[in-house]
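Cross-check.
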Amino acid sequence: MSINGISTGYYQTGYTNTNTVKGAVGNSFADTFTGKADANSSYIKTSYKTGSVEAYFASYTYGIRDEKQTYETYQSDNYKIVPDNEAGCFDIYNKQGEHLGAFSYSDIVIRQDSVTGKQFLISEHGTMSYDALVLDDELKTALANVMGKDELETEELKGFTLQTHHETGIQYLLREGEEGRGGKVLLQSEEDIAKYVALAETYFNKYPNLIKDKNAAYIWADLEIKGLAKRAEQGLISMGYDGMSYNDNLDYRNNWSVVFGKGTYNAIFDYIRNNPAGIFEM
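Predicted model, tokenized:
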């Protein structure tokens, strides 16, 4: 897994292969849209509470170091919190041992959305990555305990918006100003997982000439949820801050790509979000 790869909050830990998943886009936008993963690894785990791999690595680059802040490993019924005092971050795991993400000590605050009331743990790592989890009471208590606090501080969620994929209802957290780079998909229930898997299966079965393995199918499902991909009858449309492209499943001669001018993506993104079928008219 590359630090520049995508993340949705359900990556398996242990990615060491940095081979780009091929066959997903097949044009100049591939690095933007497909991310990287180990082709021999399962892209999705059974639990919806898993974290981003790139945030784990990025924390060692951007983690805030403070020798005065030292903590011990803490385990509750469903979480294990492992401090990295050298990097200044917590690695959080669920009871299945899956990595939920890496969160800098300075980012251990509750960020509450004023609209929905949902609470998030977000750790920002420079401009390269951020990791996010929906907080439950157990994790809030566990984090407070490991840090020796009565409770975590709460602040209003700023700089991020909670978005919803119109077809599946799956939510994702989007950093403002980065609409063309995608956000963090939040699988918050078993129902979310089932819908996500079904969407990936649709990609895998409908576009066999473009999507060669399940890893790529999950990547495309992730991109669609975040507004960076759309399904056409015979091909796939991918979008980003710098352009959009189409890859045909039957005839590569029908492929095309367009480079955007400054600010164009935001206008297109807003239009498609309000008119889901509009991309085909475009």
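DSSP finds seven helices and 15 strands in the chain. Residues 1-66 have pLDDT under 50 and may be disordered. Passed to J.P. for a second look.
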